[in-house]
Amino acid sequence: MGRFGKDQQAPDIPASIRHAIQDRIVNGRCSLTARSLVRDIAQQQNCPRSVVYAAVRRLIEEGFLEYHYTFGQSYLAVSFRRPVALTPRFTVIPPGHARTISPSKIPIVIAPGVSFGDGRHPTTCLALQALDQAWAHFDKRNSSIAPCAVDIGTGSGILAIAAARLGAARVLALDIDACARSEARLNIRLNPEAERVVEVAEHSLESIEEHFDLAMANLRLPTLAGLGDWLRGRLNPLGCVVVSGCREEEWDPLVGLYREKGLHLLWQDAKRGWTGGVFLGEEERLSEPGPKKADSGCLPL
Predict the structure, then answer these.
(1) In which domain, by residue range, is 285 found?
(2) 105 with 91: CB under 8 angstroms?
(3) How many domains does the chain have?
(4) pLDDT for the residue 293
(5) What pTM did the predictor assign?
(6) What is the pLDDT of residue 286?
């Protein structure tokens, strides 16, 4: 950043500046360089750029922010070297970090890897939010039977682990990529509560005859659209589908397609140009109100 030397004392950082930086990085529609972030926040907060530079540097030193390098350009992003609350319920924790978080939070340990689903992408946050909503729906039914779930395209395994931590009786985590399956198994071992519940497999969807109470898929639109018939055939009548991975302009066509398959929207939300939601089977839909929309975004730094 270059504005303060090692021996210089940075000024106190107003909380409003810290929160404005966090909100812009987490909820902005595009990645930001340090220069563009400082310029925008200084204009928004009507304060000197030096104060914003100091706030950014402080957040980097405290481990809340870090630089990501893409195509020779550095961008600021939330750091996952320390616990990050992705939703009001779920907090992602790096391996080896003490699980000293609020008792109201559910910790999920995720190791750095190449597979999708470490929490950095907004679709992962949306998928976890949708899982929260689906579980609230199960709780509302007061069912004494723990749901059986399938995670289609599990990647890092984060959704499968989250479902297991919520109380799923069984989670089948599917992925066609061998690297993803290996990383998912590693992350499951890092979350002992999920080990007895989650099975990682490469089964094709066509080979699965089991029925599920919950299906989860954080995938792009063409794949999600192609899942419609399979979901209709493998979802139990009172089941839920958690979906993420659609651009906002792609969402309405998917809702219409799923409606044709007997799946009806219960909840949706958007984040940084992406959308996720929860769908209900036909029988369950008859007793439910229209779709709800919730607040999005990681919790403040």
Answers:
(1) 122-293
(2) yes
(3) 2
(4) 56
(5) 0.83
(6) 47
